[in-house]
Amino acid sequence: PLANDLALTLINSPTITICGGTFTPTISVQNIGTTTVNTTRIQLKVNGTIAESKDFAPNLANLATTTFSFNPVTQNSGTVNYEFEVLLVNGVADQRPQNSLLTTSTS
To answer: Distance of CA 70 to CAs 3, 35, 55, 61, 93, Å?
Structure first.
């Protein structure tokens, strides 16, 4: 087991059927690491451009889960790609990058 491993488990919003308008991007995470996650930085990209890089202070124990929300985003028409990535866990790079990235496309 690794000490600092925060897994992105689900993109709650946006869903693939969102059709325009403003919504709040939301993701679910789980602490897979052995150390409590006191701080994390997660980045949201929209069509490859950084929309937000946000710090959270979840105090998340081993195997615990929580949900994080970002600032509202306006969905344009057409296909839009969203990417969420864990950048830091407790001030260091996530030790298992394989579970630190989730993407979805909406149209």
So the answer is: 26, 24, 10, 22, 20
pLDDT in tens, the chain (107 residues): 899 999 999 999 998 666 668 889 999 999 999 999 999 999 999 999 999 999 999 999 999 999 999 999 988 778 889 999 999 999 999 999 999 999 999 87
Going by the DSSP 8-state scheme, the letter that residue 37 receives in this structure is: B
d(CA 52, CA 70): 8
Helix (H) or strand (E) holding 102: strand 101-106
Q: Do the beta carbons of residue 3 and residue 24 sit within 8 Å?
A: no
* 10 Cβ contact partners less than 8 Å away, ≥ 6 residues apart: 27, 28, 102
Nearest to residue 81, comparing CAs of 33, 41, 25? 25
Chain-centre distance for alpha carbon 70: 9
Q: Which of 6, 26, 5 is nearest to 15 (CA)?
A: 26
